[in-house]
Every structure is written in C-alpha cells, then in structure tokens.
Amino acid sequence: MEEKKVVPFNGTKEQEKQLLEVIESHKGQDGAAIPVLHKAQDIYGYLPIEVQTMIAEGLNIPLAEIYGIVTFYTQFSLNPKGRYQIGVCLGTACYVKGSGDILEKIKSILGIDVGECTPDGKFSLDATRCIGACGLAPVMTINDDVYGRLVVDDVEDILGKYE
Amino acid sequence: MDMVRGHVLCCGGTGCTSSGSEAVIKEMESQLKANGLDKEIKVIKTGCFGLCALGPIMVVYPEGAFYSRVKVEDVKEIVEEHLLKGRIVKRLLYQETVEDDSIKSLNEVDFYKKQHRIALRNCGVIDPENIDEYIATDGYKALGKVLTEMTREEVIDEITKSGLRGRGGGGFPTGLKWKFTYNAKGDKKYVACNADEGDPGAFMDRSVLEGDPHSIIEAMAIAAYAVGADQGYIYIRAEYPIAVKRLEIAIKQAKEYGLLGKNIFDTGFNFDLELRLGAGAFVCGEETALMTSIEGKRGEPRPRPPFPANSGLWAKPTLLNNVETYANITQIINNGADWFASIGTEKSKGTKVFALGGKINNTGLVEIPMGTTLREIIEEIGGGIPNGKKFKAAQTGGPSGGCIPASLMDTPIDYDSLIQIGSMMGSGGLIVMDEDNCMVDIAKFFLEFTVDESCGKCAPCRIGTRRLLELLTKITDGKGTMEDIDKLEELCYNIKASSLCGLGQTAPNPVLSTLRYFRDEYIAHVKDKTCPAGVCKALSRYIIDRDKCKGCSLCSRQCPAGAISGKVKEPFVIDPDKCIKCGVCMQTCKFGAIYKK
C-alpha cells in the first residue's frame, strides 16, 4: 500500500482568531479541554497538531495530554474529512439487518477503507456507532442526509447524487 | 390569544427526522398559511411517539387521526381534505387504528395497549421546546412540593420507598444511592446525569431528552436538593444533536423562569446545570470514566472504592443517575411512592423503556410494566417477526448483555430474572433476531465492538477481549477446534473476574450466553464446517438449483473467478474451490436459481 499523504495544514488567520476567542472564553474553567476541542474541530474540520499546540499553550495543558485526549475519543479526527462524510451505522439493529454488506459495497465503489478519504477529497467514510435511527435500519448518513431501509443496490445511486 | 380549533402533532424525534419529518412540518406550515388556516390550526413539533418504523408520524386532534409514513406530497391532501373539509384521509391512517368506519384511540392499538408510559409520559404529547407546555402537564410541581413542603430526608425516604432502581443497567436502588451521597461529608457536592447512551441499538434516553427535557432538569434539581448539591452536569453524547439542542433550550428557559439558578422558589435553594458533550467513547458510560471525562481528561475508569458517592467529580461526593431513572422521579413525588411501588414485580418496581429493533415489525420505543414477558413484547406489542420468519433470539443489555432463546420467551422481564438467564436489563436495547442471524457472528460482532471500545487501561480487558475475538474469528473462518470452544469459555470467566470496570467485566457476556443457548451452532462451525444460518462467509456455499436453472449462462459470464461452468440450456454448477463468495451470481440470476447455504 502506498504511503498516505499528509495534507498540509492551511488554517486561515480568521480561523485562528476564532480559536483564540474560544480558548479565551474557556480559560480557567474546570474540564475545559474537551469543550474547546469540540469547538476547534467545528472551526477547522479536524484537529491537526498545529491546532492542538495552540490549545495546549492557550489552556496551559501539556501537549501530550491534549494529544492523548484527541486520540482517545473517536469523534476527534487527526485527518481532514471529505466534503461529503459518509457514515454507515454499525449499531446492532442495523448490523442484524445487513449494514455490514452496505459498508462493503461503499468501500468497493470508492476504493477506500473506513477512516479514509478519497484522494480528490470528495468522500470520506466512517463506520459509526448507533445513531438511534434503529426504526429505519440499516441506515447510512451523508453529511446531514439520512438514508434508511437500505439495500445494497441503493448505494450506487445514492453516491451518484453527490457531485 | 387566538382560538385554536385543531392541533397537528408532528414527531420531531431522531427517527422521524431521519425519515424526513422536517420537510413535512415545513410543508404543513406553508399549506396551512396558503389555506388561511394558520390561526386556527396549530402545528406542534413533539418528541418521539415510539412507533419509529411508521415515521414520519402525524396526529391530528381533536379527531386523534394517526397518520403514518406521511410524505411531503401528502400534506396538501391532509390540509385540504381533513383540516378544511373535516374528511379524514383514510389511505394515510395507520391501519391498526381503523375499525370499520371509525377510528380507534391510539391507546387501544396493540402497540400501545400493554404499555404504561411513565418515563415517556410527555413524549409525543407536548412541544419539548416550550416550557409552558411542560408546566401545563404538572411540570415543576414536584420541585415546588419538594422545596416548600418536604425535608431532604423525606425526599430520600420517598424515593427509597418507591423501590426505584437504576435504569442504566445495573439496577442499584436509587434511594440508597441518594442516601450515600447525602451522608457523604463534603463542602461541595455534585449531581450528574448519565446521558451517554452508548449501547448500539438503544435510544430510550435520547427519546426522553428529545421529547421531555424539562423532566430531567426538574428531577436533577430535586436530587440536588435531597443530597445537598448546587451544581449539576448532564453528560450527553455528541452524536445526539437534536437532544443537545432541546436541552440547551430547556436549560435556558428554566433559568429565565427562575427554576434554575439562585434562590429557586424563594427558598434559598441554588442549583445550576451545565451540559458536557461526550466525544464518542463507549467506556464513558461507566460511571467513573464518565466523571473523568467531565473533568476534561481521557475517559478512563478508576478503581472503586472510593465510590462516586464519596469521591466523584473532582474528588467531591457526586450523585450519578441515568436519564430514565431521573425521568421517573417527578412522578414518584407527585403520585407518591405507593403508587409507583404498585406497578411492576416484587423486586423490580415501575416500568422499563425498551428500544425494539432488529427483525421485528414495530420497531420503536415501548414502555412496559416490569414483569411483562418477552413474548408479550415481541408478539403483541412488537407485532412479531417480519416475512414469516421464525424468532431465534432476543438480545438485551447490548455488548454487556446476552441473548435470550425462544425457549425462555415467557420469562417475566425484571432485573433479577434476566440476570438469572445470563443476560441483563442493560439500558434497554432489545434487538430481535430471526433464523437468518448466526449467533457466533453476533457474539463476534459484540466483541469487535468491545475490542474497539476497550480503553486500554487494564490488561484483562485490553488483551483478553482481543484474544476472544481472535478465537471467534478462527471459528467463523472454519478453522476452529473443539479445544478452542473450551478455551473461549475459560477466558471469558477470567476476563469477567479480573477486569477493572464494568465494560471488561461484562464484555464476555455475549459469548457466554450464546455458548449457553446456542452451543450447537458453535459446534456446527467447528465440526461440520458449516454456518447453519448461512452468514459466515468462509463457511457458506453458493449452490445452483438444478430444477430452476434455465442454463442461460449469465452467471458464468458475470463470475469474476470463473468458478461457474456448464452447457447452455443445461443446469450450470459452481466449483466451490474457485468460488470467492462474492454473491454476484445470486444477484444476476433472473430465475432465483442460486441460493446460499
């Protein structure tokens, strides 16, 4: 397998300003690291080491601890996500109704594995925990759109809708 | 105030939102306006009705017409026919509610008949984003009563007397927990709410938070008064955006009304509440891990004792209860402990909410009195198994629980009887499986989950669950031996005995319970090298039915491995050694002649 390219960090001054404001507003608060990381990920879309460093310095928490938190929780991402983020629910209700097959189909169409992004930055793929739409199982999400009661044959058409 | 002659209740829970209820609500509002009805008919976005399989759901009052699977295109007809002319649109009604020419009340429908809604009492009834509607249904009455008429000890006694037990899974007596925290010495105490509902396939807590957020806020204030805390935290999954939003709105409204903050009801009682978002770690549902996470660290559990009642958040005495536990509190205060204790079984009082999912007709949310049997839930409330398939097992308790086989379907559901049969109540996920599900594969599925979610702090869980998964994979790959099954069982008991927290201690349960009731399936995988349900790929075979095959050769041309051969117009055959089990042949066959075994 070829080595994965590291996407260079290209945060803007505007984003940096927003982040510094967030850090400032949480300074001195008990247990501030996780709320700040949530907001930082909203601003940048992911949490590259540059952003983690700013947070570590701003909150006066060792970088190692921040990195430890980021890698512990699955919602925090070290890699950028695609423009369209696909999530296939692998909760029990979806799994017993065949969401594993849906995931395989998407992998084979896009040629990427779970946690990866297509080279053009269009799609990224995640296997999600239960999103609670068990009544519609099996379920996948693309950004804010939810597709339920899926069968494998639906996948190609759904992905085709995104340009 | 305008006179409103009718109400349209639309479900805005996650299930219905996922099936497009937002667009339906928008269309309803604009259609009402277009017909000049927007002053007469009020649209209310409610929480979950429970029947998620039928979403988007819409109920029109005063008639009580229950429309299911409403599409945007249908809205115009509902407005023009029903709301304008008073003619109910029969084709959109939930068929169960139709009786001859009239409609039945929802409470008489099979799905609701056996339910008893206490925790879900307001879900699907009130607008969760409007505090006035909550107050109109006796909201904040219990808090008022507690603060003005009851001592702290009386509150704890009442909860103890009710027999309420923790709804997060363990079933610890709630009153006792309150008492421990009350007795703990400390200048500062906290109350916390566990809304980190991580069990796959469970969404009870989310529905309560989405449908009735104020009931949790009120209950937490009552708990804070009883144990002597002035600060509360709700730890909620970030994966539940709708619940987070409604809680934020509810907290803001409660503050504006003086129901949170300083000097509540002029009694000198102060209580403030904050939300903390999880970030996707299952272990954070464990109480000590949850508190470590609120403190802003990696959510790793700590050894107990000391218990949170004595040393919890920031090492201060902390009361932690689950969402559904809190959802019962105001009702116990308002209606009395005796009323609550009259529902349920001897040792398990009250009701339990279950999220029904998997191979069942009425997927959704149900609240039943303790002691109801699994058969009643699945066959009567749940409407049975779809496509004429046979019931095989029900899984309760998520990755910590076990599978209940058909032979035990008449077990009454309560904390103790479920433990006895090797499962557990858990938070309330109930996944139904039919004959097409392989029990070894299900055990493997849960182990994949726990391996992924093990925090790594203690070795039995970190390493042990991985070894379990490897053994299971070996078996589903058809390479297992009978010794592997014994090893599997032994390892399970070791992990249970030596793990640090609840996650590791219960992680082997799915394996143990499937071994207990479905050992023959394990043996079939090992000895006969077959998967009886035809799920495990390495063991399944694609076979062409000679009688149905017309010899069109389509499959052999599509097969990427060149495994299918034969003469045109005569039955073809698949060479199992060459077959890579991709299933393309089965999909392409126009005559349904290819099946999997």
Keyphrases for this structure?
heterodimer, A: 163 residues, alpha+beta, Glutaredoxin, 2 domains, 4-stranded mixed β-sheet, 7 helices, 4 strands, elongated, B: 597 residues, Rossmann fold, 5-stranded mixed β-sheet
Describe the protein's architecture and organization.
The complex is a heterodimer of chains A (163) and B (597). Helices cover 44% and strands 11% of the residues of chain A. Chain A has seven helices and four strands; from the N terminus they run ααααβααβββα. Chain A has helices spanning 13-26, 33-44, 49-59, 63-72, 92-96, 99-110, 154-160, and strands at residues 84-89, 123-128, 140-142, 145-147. In chain A, helix 1 runs antiparallel to helix 2, helix 1 runs parallel beside helix 3 and helix 2 (33-44) runs antiparallel to helix 3 (49-59). Chain A is elongated. Chain B is 40% helix and 16% strand. In chain B, strand 3 (58-61) and strand 4 (65-67) form a beta hairpin. Chain B contains 24 helices and 20 strands. Chain B folds into five domains: 6-108, Glutaredoxin, CATH 3.40.30; 131-340, Rossmann fold (3-Layer(aba) Sandwich); 351-434, Ubiquitin-like (UB roll) (Roll), CATH 3.10.20.600; 439-528, NADH-ubiquinone oxidoreductase 51kDa subunit, iron-sulphur binding domain (de novo design (two linked rop proteins)); 541-596, Alpha-Beta Plaits, CATH 3.30.70. Chain A binds chain B through residues 30-35, 37-38, 65, 68-69, 72-76, 90-93, 95-97, 128-137, 139, 146, 148, and chain B through 14-15, 17-19, 51-53, 55, 198-203, 206, 238-240, 276-282, 293-299, 314, 355, 357-359, 363-364, 395, 398, 429, 431, 433, 437, 442, 445-446, 455.
Largest sheet of chain B, described in full?
A: 5 strands, mixed
Number of helical regions of chain A: 7
Beta content of chain A comes to 5-15%
Tally of distinct domains of chain B: 5
Find the CATH topology of the largest domain in chain A. Answer: Glutaredoxin
Q: Taking strands numbered 1, 2, ... along the chain, how are they ordered across the largest sheet of chain B?
A: 9-10-8-7-11
The CATH architecture assignment of the largest domain in chain B turns out to be 3-Layer(aba) Sandwich
The portion of residues assigned to helices of chain B is 25-40%
**Strand percentage of chain B, roughly?**
15-25%
Computed CA radius of gyration of chain B, to the nearest angstrom:
27 Å
Arithmetic mean of pLDDT of chain A: 89
**What is the terminal-to-terminal distance of chain B?**
67 Å
Low-confidence stretches of chain B: none
What is the general shape of chain B? globular
Overall mean pLDDT of chain B? 93
The CATH homologous superfamily of the largest domain in chain A corresponds to Glutaredoxin
Tell me the count of domains of chain A.
2
